[in-house]
Amino acid sequence: HIRTHILCTGQVYYTLLQARELNNVRDVAISRIEQLHPFPWDLVRDHVEKYPNCEFVWTQEEPLNMGSWAHVEPRLRTVFNNTENHSGKAIRYAGRDPSGPVATGNHKQHVFEEWAFTSQALFGEARKPTDIVSGVPKWD
Fold first, then answer.
1. What is the 3-state composition of the chain as percent helix, strand, coil, each rounded to the nearest 5?
2. Is the pTM of this model over 0.90?
């Protein structure tokens, strides 16, 4: 039973896959949307219908005011409204807060932010890792 379906684009997909595997998370599906324009309406619709009772999360590595969120959020709402199981559903954002620069410039802060949005996507909340395995956070 899938409780959360994470949608993303780009390399954050691999970060999420590693964290899901390391933390033995079995109730989260992760899908990467490769093409954002033109938006693949039918493919996304058919894919989200595979998980009828889940919450949706958009995850991106870029800050909220950059990246794909502003482009995909209204399109995903339209897709959901054209499905049998998800009409009216919202999608939760799990990513960095809005920012002027693309990155913090501080490696430690960058890693902390990545762990925070990864745990928000997987667990619904920012958690402090209890262990780090090959750079990938492990949560209890």
1. 35, 20, 45
2. yes
